[in-house]
Amino acid sequence: MTQQSILVARAVFPEVLAKLGEHFEVESNQEDTIWPREEFIRRLQGKVGVFTTGGERIDAALLKACPDLKICANMAVGYNNFDVPAMTAAGVMATNAPDVLTETTADMGFTLLMATARRLSESEAYLRAGQWNKWSYDMFCGGDIHGSTLGILGMGRIGRAVARRGAHGFGMNVIYHNRSRLAPELEQEANARYVSKQDLFRQADHIVLVLPYSAENHHTVGATEIALMKPTSTIVNIGRGGLIDENALAAALAANKILGAGLDVFEGEPRVNPALTALKNVVLTPHIGSASVPTRKAMANLAADNLIGYLVHGKLKRLSINSQALSNRLNDLSFSLSVKL
Ligand code: GLV
What we know:
binds glyoxylic acid; seven-stranded parallel sheet; Rossmann fold; 2 domains; 39% helix; five-stranded parallel sheet; 15 helices
């Protein structure tokens, strides 16, 4: 039997490529070239599966041009690069990499919160520039973390893990806003109180954004929300760049309307808005929320296992992004039974 062919769109751990190679004919990209879309489509010809990393757009036009494709496995929990309805309509399975990165990404949210509140980047740059020649009473004074109010916008798995750190580790008063309120036992576990979005921006000393990004919540944080924040407060974004109006944020930071911001994600990344890089009161990191070695390995293995599970064994270990919709669409009992929880 000829082997099924898959494409691995970006460089990945060699052991993960080797595992995929045991089941498929694999075209890889260990040079890590960012292929123009036409080239990506050309390389997808004849491929039944693709390993993506969150940056490759899968939409109706691509699916039409790649009729052999059966599954796209994202090595990311976010999947705003997928047009899920188009994938379902084309009968293509969409998988992401949830759970395995929850704690590591929450660690990063907390790292940015602390670095921003305690002005870490700014003070380190000052020291490295040789400007430190005396101690002064107010040098790089920031805000306290312990005992302050932590506001979380987006209370999914990562949001709840950030809340646990704040409540149990730092004695913070945790408030949150989410599309829907959490079940009482989850609120209790996170020690968090539900508030309106406006109250969250008014009351929090430190805000963390952990929402999945979609067209509906584009710039969900803009000038109006930032204007509600306390002058001593900070905001961290570990979701997606498009959640914040970066120009409005940069203007508020430049005018010291808030204490600082910590950003791991950017609109149009890897390009970073020059209005942000020009500022001192912002901590900037290059989308490294899940970047610990064990977690990145777990994410890559999960994406690979999804490809192997679906294409080789005809089943996934857990429901995927669109397995239910796909099952409904196909109205195929054998398909739904083959998706094991
Ligand atoms: C990272 O941003 C992810 O979505 O996994």
